């Protein structure tokens, strides 16, 4: 679906179009595209007296879209200082955080908002964290981490039995909470790949490639790969145990005629892949060089 820009004869046209953009869920626009939209309206409206109102509206559309792209974390803890501190650290990691000091208010909010993870304190008035955990798990599958001052094993067992995924005892280091949150989100994404067709998932010794989403995980760590790096790794995984020549890699990825200098292009991408995978060049665990022939991943 494409956004067709209307002639800018009046304020109403801009407002109409921005509502169209804001509500077009089928549009897939990245940050750069949104910025171009915003700049376009700034440039085309800067000589009009209603520039300020339109610019604010356009900017609010962009900010709303950016918020939708962030992972959403819920914090429910009646100890305000702890909740505020955890919120600060998570926001610093670019998470979108929703914070509540009351479990009942949090539950009402949860029924209206899609979340990615919940952090729950156990000891709270009205509704305890354990009760809230049970209610969440009856309806949602996202990770739950319990935060509590209790250290008794029975509390840990009860929380995990009700569906919690992790348990952190107070006092704790905020950075530990951040690390646990990231680890649970990685696992959640990984196991949710089960809804994807088997042929779209490639696995090898802790390496998981999702061909549908172009995501690559190594030992539950998300690797930031370029499209070319992902394609090279996918081809090698699909042909595990076989040597794939640089010429074949080049042809499959670029669909172009192979020249002697093309080998340097493949070599550079292989080197970058090994660096990102922290794979040894001298004794690689994953991508092995077969001198004079090409590259392979052992079965």
From TrEMBL:
<dbReference type="Pfam" id="PF00486">
    <property type="entry name" value="Trans_reg_C"/>
</dbReference>
<dbReference type="InterPro" id="IPR036388">
    <property type="entry name" value="WH-like_DNA-bd_sf"/>
</dbReference>
<feature type="domain" description="Response regulatory">
    <location>
        <begin position="72"/>
        <end position="185"/>
    </location>
</feature>
<dbReference type="GO" id="GO:0000156">
    <property type="term" value="F:phosphorelay response regulator activity"/>
</dbReference>
<dbReference type="InterPro" id="IPR011006">
    <property type="entry name" value="CheY-like_superfamily"/>
</dbReference>
<dbReference type="InterPro" id="IPR016032">
    <property type="entry name" value="Sig_transdc_resp-reg_C-effctor"/>
</dbReference>
<comment type="function">
    <text>May play the central regulatory role in sporulation. It may be an element of the effector pathway responsible for the activation of sporulation genes in response to nutritional stress. Spo0A may act in concert with spo0H (a sigma factor) to control the expression of some genes that are critical to the sporulation process.</text>
</comment>
<dbReference type="InterPro" id="IPR039420">
    <property type="entry name" value="WalR-like"/>
</dbReference>
<dbReference type="InterPro" id="IPR058211">
    <property type="entry name" value="VanR-like"/>
</dbReference>
<feature type="modified residue" description="4-aspartylphosphate">
    <location>
        <position position="121"/>
    </location>
</feature>
<dbReference type="Pfam" id="PF00072">
    <property type="entry name" value="Response_reg"/>
</dbReference>
<feature type="DNA-binding region" description="OmpR/PhoB-type">
    <location>
        <begin position="199"/>
        <end position="299"/>
    </location>
</feature>
<keyword id="KW-0238">DNA-binding</keyword>
<keyword id="KW-0902">Two-component regulatory system</keyword>
<keyword id="KW-0805">Transcription regulation</keyword>
<dbReference type="GO" id="GO:0000976">
    <property type="term" value="F:transcription cis-regulatory region binding"/>
</dbReference>
<protein>
    <recommendedName>
        <fullName>Stage 0 sporulation protein A homolog</fullName>
    </recommendedName>
</protein>
<feature type="domain" description="OmpR/PhoB-type">
    <location>
        <begin position="199"/>
        <end position="299"/>
    </location>
</feature>
<dbReference type="GO" id="GO:0032993">
    <property type="term" value="C:protein-DNA complex"/>
</dbReference>
<dbReference type="GO" id="GO:0006355">
    <property type="term" value="P:regulation of DNA-templated transcription"/>
</dbReference>
<dbReference type="InterPro" id="IPR001867">
    <property type="entry name" value="OmpR/PhoB-type_DNA-bd"/>
</dbReference>
<keyword id="KW-0597">Phosphoprotein</keyword>
<dbReference type="InterPro" id="IPR001789">
    <property type="entry name" value="Sig_transdc_resp-reg_receiver"/>
</dbReference>
<dbReference type="GO" id="GO:0005829">
    <property type="term" value="C:cytosol"/>
</dbReference>
<keyword id="KW-0804">Transcription</keyword>
């Amino acid at each position: 679906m494409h956004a067709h820009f209307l002639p800018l004869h009046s304020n109403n046209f801009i407002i109409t179009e921005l509502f169209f953009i804001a509500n077009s869920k089928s549009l897939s626009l990245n940050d750069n595209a949104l910025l171009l939209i915003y700049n376009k309206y700034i440039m085309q409206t800067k000589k009009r007296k209603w520039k300020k109102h339109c610019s604010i509206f356009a900017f609010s559309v962009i900010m709303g879209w950016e918020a939708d792209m962030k992972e959403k974390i819920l914090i429910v803890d009646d100890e305000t200082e702890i909740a505020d501190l955890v919120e600060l650290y998570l926001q610093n990691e670019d998470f979108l955080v929703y914070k509540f000091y009351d479990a009942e208010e949090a539950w009402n909010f949860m029924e209206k908002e899609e979340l990615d993870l919940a952090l729950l304190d156990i000891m709270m008035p009205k509704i305890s964290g354990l009760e809230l955990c049970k209610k969440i798990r009856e309806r949602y599958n996202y990770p739950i981490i319990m935060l509590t001052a209790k250290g008794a094993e029975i509390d840990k067992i009860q929380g995990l039995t009700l569906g919690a995924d992790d348990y952190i005892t107070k006092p704790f280091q905020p950075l530990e909470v951040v690390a646990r949150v990231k680890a649970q989100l990685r696992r959640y994404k990984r196991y949710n790949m089960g809804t994807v067709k088997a042929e779209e998932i490639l696995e090898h010794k802790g390496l998981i490639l999702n061909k549908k989403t172009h995501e690559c995980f190594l030992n539950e760590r998300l690797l930031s790969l370029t499209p070319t790096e992902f394609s090279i790794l996918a081809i090698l995984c699909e042909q595990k145990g076989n040597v794939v020549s640089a010429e074949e890699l080049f042809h499959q990825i670029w669909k172009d005629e192979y020249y002697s200098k093309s080998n340097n292009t493949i070599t550079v991408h292989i080197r970058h892949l090994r660096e990102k995978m922290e794979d040894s060049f001298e004794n690689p665990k994953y991508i092995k060089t077969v001198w004079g022939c090409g590259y392979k991943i052992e079965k």
